[in-house]
């Protein structure tokens, strides 16, 4: 089964940029897909995630925020 990671991000967020690099590498290693959503493009997303970006979703469920925990993300994508 292929998994999908969504990075909840915003423009000019250094931590988001770092997370994107890590997520891209991990997803490439494991054959998972990933995408980026700009929380500032939607008031509901901004209200939900705006104070915690970057936030990571795996298959639509919140998995973590601020820093990618590589071992934990790899485990989720390997399940």
Automatic annotation (TrEMBL):
It comes from the Bacteria. InterPro entries: Glutaredoxin-like, Thioredoxin-like_sf. Pfam families: Glrx-like. This is Glutaredoxin family protein. It comes from Lentzea rhizosphaerae.
